[in-house]
Design goal:
four-stranded parallel β-sheet; 11 helices; globular; Rossmann fold
């Protein structure tokens, strides 16, 4: 059984730290514990780029304020990296390399001695090229050091009343593009518009996969259960097409976070 004390003990070994902070539940728990242990010697940092979905920065700011950690937004330019734009299976390596380069610069400039990520032990069994970038930059993973998996993270986040305790995972917008499709800011903006439109319809856990001229909608199990009428399906299709897609599909199976981009799944509805 993990304990908050173990997490705080891991964090306490650093005199000061930057927390790579998305506002998701994992980095939020690290930020909350860092605030408790390090106080004003901890800073949560959110990377801003065209791959950040609309609303995520505001959400991160709100969580940082709620847990009592100082927060800063910095610009990253992963799109300037050819390996990132190429969008191979190692895309996240190039993205995290850009992030950790910027955090290393900030830490050196302002005297922070460590960089913390929100990786937990469940991430270690997945394909996570970003962990290689972390290792190359000496980034620490306090949740891993304390033995926290995702279930423990959510349990402790709820116990501390962290606002993102039940927040669905929200990977960067580039994850909606199939491997091999070049990452382009215009495409990222199109995906963002489509997902915003679906959230405006009340859906919470979703992805719009960019498959050429088709926007393929994947919904979490609870949200998919709401799509029981033709009118509901048509509203989704219309929202995706209004974002600039010629066609829209609704996947018949629930969203599986972390599934490979570009995987062909069974459509529930198609709009042209």
């Amino acid at each position: 059984m993990t304990s908050l004390a173990e997490l705080e003990s891991a964090i306490a070994t650093a005199p000061s730290a930057l927390v790579a902070f998305s506002g998701g539940v994992d980095s939020s728990l690290v930020a909350a514990a860092a605030a408790r242990v390090l106080g004003d010697r901890a800073l949560a940092v959110t990377a801003v780029s065209p791959a950040l979905a609309t609303g995520e920065l505001d959400g991160a700011r709100a969580v940082a304020a709620a847990v009592g950690i100082a927060h800063r937004a910095i610009a990253t330019d992963e799109l300037a990296r050819e390996g990132y734009r190429r969008n191979g299976a190692d895309r996240c390596y190039h993205c995290k390399s850009e992030l950790y380069d910027r955090l290393a610069e900030l830490g050196a400039l302002e005297g922070y001695t460590a960089v913390f990520s929100g990786a937990n032990i469940d991430d270690l069994g997945d394909w996570r090229p970003g962990l290689r970038a972390a290792a190359e930059h000496d980034v620490r993973h306090p949740l891993v050091e304390a033995g926290f998996g995702k279930a423990e993270v959510r349990r402790w986040a709820a116990a501390l009343a962290i606002p993102s305790a039940t927040k669905p995972a929200m990977p960067c917008l580039a994850s909606r593009l199939p491997y091999g499709t070049e990452v382009d800011p215009i495409v990222l903006a199109q995906v963002d518009r489509a997902e915003l439109a679906l959230r405006a319809l009340g859906y919470r856990e979703l992805r719009v996969r960019h498959v050429g001229a088709t926007g393929r909608v994947e919904l979490g199990e609870e949200d998919l259960g709401r799509v029981t009428t033709g009118a509901a399906r048509e509203a989704i299709v219309s929202a995706v097409r209004a974002a600039g897609y010629a066609r829209a599909e609704i996947d018949a199976r629930p969203l599986r976070s972390g599934s490979p981009t570009g995987l062909r799944r069974l459509p529930l509805a198609v709009g042209r």
